[in-house]
UniProtKB/TrEMBL annotation:
It comes from Alteromonas portus. Belongs to the UPF0047 family. This is YjbQ family protein. NCBIfam families: TIGR00149_YjbQ.
Length: 145
């Protein structure tokens, strides 16, 4: 008989400054029941349209700096054709960056741990100058031990 396991958790992240931030530890800390999952999936859904989730380098902070520099270069602020600027010059560019990177991740779980690669971490892309708290809905499913 299999032991199907489902768990959902709302994770509220404190406000981060604009840029890319490792949040792997916050996600893992919010889901202590993950240690009981032998095989499964963790789905993360960010409930915002001006931030994003991605998986990338977890060791060298210059990667996060370079990602921010690349996206700021690629998605310029104050373009004359932007209409959605009600909340400031970073408003529409934040929405574009969020759509490019996405607001969800699915990560395999094996033997009670996220099956991330050695140099991989979960990143929050904060694309607003003052984005505020961010909320993630985490859904963990799998076979429990």
């Amino acid at each position: 008989m299999t032991n199907n396991f489902w768990h959902s958790e709302k994770i509220t992240l404190e406000s981060y400054p604009r840029g890319f931030h490792l949040i792997t530890q916050q996600v893992e800390s919010a889901l202590p029941s993950i240690r009981h999952v032998e095989v499964g999936l963790l789905h993360l859904w960010l409930q915002h349209t001006s931030a994003s989730l991605t998986i990338n380098e977890n060791a060298d902070p210059t990667v996060r700096h370079d990602m921010e520099a690349f996206f700021n270069h690629s998605v310029k602020e104050e373009l004359s054709f932007f209409r959605h600027t009600y909340e400031g010059k970073d408003d529409m560019p934040a929405h574009l960056k969020s759509s490019i990177l996405g607001c969800q991740l699915t990560i395999p779980v094996q033997q009670g741990k996220l099956a991330l690669g050695t140099w991989q971490g979960i990143m929050l892309g904060e694309h607003r100058d003052h984005g505020g708290r961010r909320t993630i809905i985490a859904t963990l499913q799998g076979i429990a031990s």
